Amino acid sequence: MRKLTDPAPATDVTSAKRTRRTHHWRRDLVELAALFTAVAVADAIANMVAHGPDGPFLLIASAVVLTATAGFHTWWARRHSHSPPTAAPGNGKSDKSESGAPEPGPDTALWRMRTTVKDEPGSLALLCTALARHRVDILTLQTHPLAEGTVDELLLRAPATLQAAQLSGEIAAAGGSDTWLERADAHDLVDAPTRVLGLATRTALDAAELPLALRQLLGRCTIHSLPATTLTGRPTGETAPVEGVLDSTVMKLRDPSGGAITIERPYLPFTPTEFARARALVELDARLGPRMPRSEDILTLPEGNEITVRRAGPDDLEAARAMHDRCSDRTLNLRYHGPVGDADRYLSHLLSPRYGRTLAVQTASGRLVALGHLLWDGDETEVALLVEDAWQRRGIGSELLGRLVVMALDARCESVYAVTQSSNTGMVAAMRGLGLPLDYQIEEGTLVVTARLSAATVRSRLPYEQTQESELTQQHHQTQQPQQAQRR
């Protein structure tokens, strides 16, 4: 086993009980003689002061001598006492903590580093020594054992002037190989057990969180949920063994809802430890079964009608098909970009929490009149809207889109995109109404509008969370509660 630091030298331990000192008769005799001498001198001085002719003058002289002696002693003690430790040059404060690491501030940067070292005593100590020479502080450390060597994953706080190439060179000189560096942020300051427990909690509350939890657990990676059958019901051949498959930069796990979950990270191979963590999250999802948090917002349209916005799932499949039957061919064609007859085949995929999140709008009578989808597309995120013809141009589409964008922001998505036709002015207007930076790409009549997300911009511009600015007035909000999980 490798040691981070050398063991501290052993220290002497003293007993709590004091040993008795040996008394000698000579010491007792000397102390007794000193006591009698002091009494005799005091008696002589007292008689001299009381009965002698110069007694008062002798008393005054003694007081002056004692005062002068006390003053001299005070001056001597102040001049030769130990002076307090001097402060470090600069602003009067030391730029090091007790451990010698740089204090956090604007002149430091966070780095995530992963390197492979030999699994032998002293290898990690050499790595730490190399980092200490450049005033690099190790905030967290995780070890991933391999068959040969060990992968060390560290969160570092380094001087801002230290470049990645220089840091990599020092690590290589200290024995590290296959070194990978990436800038970190405040989210990485959470320790690994706390982060994994948080991801497990999110997965337990909502089945749609599994792909997001895997992405946050494993860093920048591409996740694909591949169904076991096609839209026409034919087998796809996408399966995975129960224990899963790990092949360097590709991880394949069995999807509890059928099919397989494929995770790819070309820039960095997966370790057995990461594979075990990912498989544990998938097994948790399988044991809890289908589940979805229940929340409802009752809103009022400008004309006074009330609608309810809530999460939708596989249980809403029949209601969604009925809404399809009430939509015109043009509306379905603008939404699905293909034959209208195939529209129903997409619903089971869209309503599955494995592929994203869905919001539904229903009337006071319970009829479904609109759907909004937030779809996980690998490492990208797509938004899509479908509003029944009779309920269009009432602000419902903008309301759904704003909520979907906030969901994407909470999932730490950097952007969302919408695929539509250039003639779909309603979708384009809804995207422009977000007030976010947009990118447009047109290919053969297909329009892709991408909105770049930032927390400050989204929170300040999206109006649906602020009732006084929203086109729809929010009347009531129920506390979000997870649906009871069904055990398989």
Describe this structure in words.
The protein is an alpha+beta fold and 488 residues long. The chain has three domains: 108-189, ACT domain (Alpha-Beta Plaits), CATH 3.30.70.260; 192-288, no CATH class; 293-482, Gcn5-related N-acetyltransferase (GNAT) (Aminopeptidase), CATH 3.40.630.30. Helices cover 35% and strands 25% of the residues. The chain has helices at 25-51, 55-79, 123-133, 164-173, 192-205, 210-218, 272-288, 317-326, 329-336, 343-350, 396-410, 425-432, 455-461; strands at 108-117, 137-145, 150-159, 177-183, 222-226, 245-247, 250-254, 260-264, 293-294, 296-300, 306-312, 356-363, 368-377, 380-387, 415-421, 438-443, 446-452, 473-477, 481-482. The strands form five sheets. It has a six-stranded antiparallel beta sheet, with helices on both faces. The protein has a four-stranded antiparallel beta sheet with strand order 2-3-1-4, sandwiched between helices. A four-stranded antiparallel beta sheet has the order 5-8-7-6, with helices on one face. β6 (245-247) and β7 (250-254) form a beta hairpin. The longest helix is centred in the first third of the chain and has 27 residues, at 25-51. It is elongated, with a radius of gyration of 38 Å.
